[in-house]
Specification:
The structure holds two protein chains of two kinds. Chain A contains ten helices and nine strands. Chain A has one domain: Alpha-Beta Barrel (TIM Barrel), CATH 3.20.20. Chain A is globular. In chain A, strands 1-4-5-6-7-8-9 form a seven-stranded parallel β-sheet. Chain A has a two-stranded antiparallel sheet with strand order 2-3. Chain B is an alpha/beta fold. Chain B has a seven-stranded mixed β-sheet with strand order 2-1-3-4-5-6-7, sandwiched between helices. A four-stranded parallel β-sheet of chain B has the order 13-14-15-16. The chains are: A alpha/beta, B alpha/beta.
Chain lengths: 292, 424
């Protein structure tokens, strides 16, 4: 419910599955003045409380040579909530963690690919990365607690076919590291949702029983019956509302936004390899599985 | 030969940093009662709710009490009952007397469930408790005291209700009598009893039925004492509606003004925000108010009707804007699990207050409290709730057990994210 304006600091080196996206691209950063201007504009144009809120995204922000300038620019622009999208490794340094907190960083989007080194490190292609990452988040939280600075950590998990089985572990790790929220972002159009749903549901339950909210993006409402509160859009709209992706779904015209059947003819309407089409296949498969 | 005075231990388990105003009133009244002079020796134990009940019992037993009197709320009741069991086991001759909103409205049930408890004081306790001590120190005929439920000849009997105190000034001030020492941030004053609202989930009015006020002179004396106490920079009022009337608000602002000039501030004042305009906001500011607490509790039409809550979105927003304009931060409270609300009504409420950007958002799960309308109508409304304190709702016809827990976790996450901002 709290919106952030994303401002990219650069590109390349993002935390993402190397099997889906290939080798990591080289990192390039935008100039501080360019980013600062975009931050100022985002704050000036902010029209809906609470805010303005800005997230520095894209390439690892701690790699930007002028990160303190960027944070200062956000503060100068009267940004209320400043978020860094990060792998958190740099936060192991108390100077980085303490410095960013004192400068004004209050939110982290901590990106991981799984809850175990066997998934995160392997998919990232960097042995030992997950442990360093967790250490960074703990350092950030610990210094924030010492300084009585309220912070919020969202663990973001880009979900794909290679890490879906590790989602409950990822939720557990987020709990353990002190996250306030977990965001499961389904980005893989080729993901078999029927097979993925039990893992997604288990991750939701893992979070709830441990007091950490788990939100799901990219899964149609119709697939998560009983878990619809966990859908990002569901917390903005009423039950039965469709996901934005539903507009693209070939079943949209026959779907009421709640679980419903679909015929072979409708299945034939699909036109892969679009994401919506693939998604619809998954929808049908999931429904068939449930019906059985 | 002179008889040794009755040793009365008075126990409260409070939120950390606070002292029990209720015990202060009880002791101040009893100590001023001439009938008890030289016959009862008082000792107050103001402890925190997080103290282990066994250590609380240790402290109580160290006083070797003849009477243990405990103020019970839904928040401390489980610990209190554990303390009582231990104390009764070690010192069975000690009479255990309970009072407070958790036990008064359910006195018979409490005595049935807790054989170690001897007496429950119902309703306003000052006079009843003093009368009870008179009997315990003398004839022992506690059943002659109005306003109690107790055991007599193996039966649980309730004596007639006691009339409310007609003139609140008859109750000595816990502060001015020296019973209660103000502590910074933890001192509370009370200027009236009762509540103009009749919210179905709330026991704030305590069934008093009408509003009774302390005199302006009494209030002035207490404000002067607390606001000038060494080390006190902030305190609060326990009144359910600080802006009860415009005139009253003016009086309080005037009484607070000299202390505000010395840097004293008021925190967590409960207000009826829909009645706050620019003038009222300015008066609150003059009174030194820095933070207020208010609803809406819900914005769902069904729950508002079921709970008899007034709510007008535009007036609410206007009140909040008026407060913000004078620099007063607001805590907006929401309750999940009210009858008539589904989980999406609760989320809509969160969204509504979030867009008002009040400063603090606090959500809590419904507690079906003894003595409230919801307690009486729970079965009719289909409210499943924990019969044990703190009586949290388990499920409603519109919100499942699982969705209630989800809503709690979601709200908690949202509150953290909202609170995490630059500049507080």
């Amino acid at each position: 419910m709290i919106r952030f304006a994303d401002v990219g600091v650069g590109s390349g080196g993002e935390v993402r599955c190397s099997r889906c996206h290939g080798e990591s691209q080289s990192i390039s950063y935008r100039s501080a003045s360019e980013i600062a201007a975009e931050i100022a504009m985002a704050c000036e144009l902010w029209d809906e409380p609470p805010g303005p809120n800005v997230a520095l995204t894209g390439a690892e922000p701690f790699g930007h040579p002028e990160l303190p300038v960027l944070v200062g620019a956000a503060v100068d622009a009267h940004c209320r909530r400043l978020c860094l999208e990060t792998d958190a490794v740099a936060l192991r340094s108390s100077q980085n963690a303490g410095g960013s907190l004192i400068a004004g960083v209050r939110h982290l989007r901590w990106i991981i690919l799984g809850g175990t080194p066997g998934v995160h490190d392997v998919l990232l292609g960097t042995p030992g990365a997950l442990d360093l990452s967790v250490e960074g988040v703990r350092s950030f939280r610990s210094i924030a607690a010492e300084e009585s600075i309220p912070v919020s950590v969202t663990t973001v998990v880009p979900v794909c076919r290679h890490n879906v089985h590790d989602l409950p572990a990822a939720a557990g790790l987020a709990v353990d590291a002190g996250a306030d929220r977990v965001l499961l972002r389904v980005e893989d159009g080729g993901l078999d949702l029927a097979a993925a749903l039990p893992w997604i549901v288990a991750a939701c339950d893992t979070g709830v029983v441990n007091g950490v909210w788990v939100e799901v993006e990219g899964v149609p409402f119709c697939l998560l019956a009983g878990y619809d509160l966990h859908l990002s859009d569901a917390v903005r709209e009423r039950a039965g509302a469709k996901q934005p992706i539903c507009i693209e779904c070939p079943l949209d015209s026959v779907c009421a936004g709640v679980p419903a059947g679909a015929s072979a003819d409708q299945l034939a309407m699909l036109s892969p390899p679009s994401f919506a089409g693939t998604l619809a296949v998954s929808v049908l498969r999931a429904r068939a599985t449930r019906a059985e | 030969m002179a008889t040794a005075p009755l040793r009365c231990a008075m126990l409260a388990l409070n939120s950390p940093g606070y002292r029990s105003l209720a015990l202060g009133y009880l002791r101040a009244y009893a100590q001023a009662d001439r009938r008890l002079a030289g016959r009862v020796a008082f000792e107050t134990l103001d402890l925190d709710t997080d103290v282990d009940p066994w250590w609380v019992a240790w402290r109580v037993l160290g006083l070797e009490p003849d009477v243990l009197a405990v103020s019970v709320t839904c928040w401390n009741a489980r610990s209190v009952y554990e303390v009582c069991r231990i104390v009764a086991s070690v010192r069975p001759e000690c009479a255990i007397v309970l009072g407070g909103p958790e036990v008064g409205p359910a006195a018979e049930d409490v005595l049935t469930a807790h054989p170690e408890v001897g007496v429950v004081v119902r309703g306003e306790g000052e006079i009843t408790f003093a009368d009870l001590l008179c009997e315990l120190a003398g004839s022992g005929k506690a059943w002659r005291v109005d306003g109690v439920t107790l055991r007599r000849n193996g039966e649980i009997v309730a004596t007639p209700d006691r009339a409310l105190v007609a003139d609140l000034d008859d109750l000595p001030s816990p502060y001015l009598s020296g019973v209660l020492t103000p502590v910074d941030g933890g001192a509370y004053l009370e200027t009236f009893r009762g509540c103009p609202h009749r919210c179905a989930y709330c026991f704030e009015g305590k069934g008093y039925g009408r509003i009774r006020s302390f005199s302006d002179e009494r209030i002035a004396g207490e404000i002067e004492f607390v606001a000038t106490a060494p080390g006190v920079r902030t305190f609060s009022f326990i009144d359910p509606v600080f802006n009860l009337t415009g005139e009253r608000l003016k009086t309080l602002a005037m009484l607070m003004a000299p202390h505000v000039a010395n840097g004293v501030r008021l925190h967590t004042i409960e207000v009826d925000i829909e009645r706050i305009d620019d003038e009222a906001a300015a008066l609150l500011r003059s009174a030194g108010v820095v933070t207020v607490e208010t609803g809406p509790q819900t914005i769902g039409a069904g729950a508002l009707e079921a709970c008899h809550r007034p709510f007008h979105a535009d007036r609410f927003a206007a009140g909040l804007a008026a407060l913000r304009a004078v620099g007063i931060s607001c805590e907006c409270d929401l309750i999940v699990g009210l009858p008539g609300d589904d989980v999406y009504d609760f989320l809509a409420g969160l969204r509504y207050v979030l867009r008002l950007d009040p400063g603090k958002i606090q959500s809590s799960t419904l507690h079906v409290l003894p003595g409230t309308e919801l307690w009486e109508r729970a079965a009719e409304l289909g409210l499943e709730f924990d019969r044990e304190p703190s009586h949290e709702v388990i499920a409603t016809p519109d919100v499942s057990f699982r969705d209630l827990r989800r809503a709690e976790v979601f709200a908690s996450s949202l509150q953290s994210a909202y609170r995490a901002r630059i500049g507080g």
